[in-house]
């Protein structure tokens, strides 16, 4: 049975009858609705709703998008993503739309109903284990992104995702950025794999924990790099030094949309605030090392449990961070995609660039 939240007529931003692509609120709302369209595509599939009974199409057709392709997982065959093309009617073609996308690739998060739940939860575990890049679902997503960018160019493609889908979009965006292709990205409630330090009320305790973590992480990073350099010298490797991957991605500025009441993503607030504080107290060099690495991964490497620490998939050098300060009734609302197309939000946005 369909819920009220699945119906665009009951839950969608019906006030957006005319989209100003220069307006950040409009762009955010459209991107969020296209992600919701993927959720409802899979719900239509599960409920066998077709034709006039299908609830998904209004979530993209209202904004003049066309569904080009569904992205289907090879395990369980659930719909986890969609490729949309912006197809405005002739009456709108003369309107200025410099910042409108030509194509949007959107990814849904976890659905806790029917056949998709076991596969989605399996991928949630891979996010925690830093192994999402090794899954077949991500391979399918990445191939779709590469093909679209190759066909139309990076400036014409948007990425969007929510929760698990946000992790997919972030990883796809990072992969493209590492080769110099910077895609406009809307990452809603992306999971941050860490203890929820942001929940601590005492700011001194919170900053002290972050400072200690940064010093330890930076120290382990330096030790690991010194060991690797020594091994290279012993093997007489004299190759030219390569750019640090983290530095290479610094020019990519995705939009991160988080809620402080959502423990799944709220740590991004502290992650970027702490970087700024470390710069202010003259400890920027420490933080530039620490911000690239996971303390857990470095400790596993130091104890010999892991050959080499893999780059944490959830860490990014730069972002336009938007925090929803509007009070949430519960965690479900704080983590939900629906908050991001409301027009009455109390938002705080700040650009964080890796230096």
TrEMBL record:
InterPro entries linked to this entry: AB_hydrolase_fold (IPR029058), Fungal_lipase-type (IPR002921)
Record bears the keyword Hydrolase: yes
Molecular function, one GO term: hydrolase activity
Keywords annotated in UniProt: Hydrolase
Gene Ontology biological process terms from the UniProt entry: lipid metabolic process
Domain Fungal lipase-type: from-to ranges: 142-181
Pfam families registered for this protein in UniProt: Lipase_3
Protein name: GDSL esterase/lipase
Species per Swiss-Prot/TrEMBL record: Pyrus ussuriensis x Pyrus communis
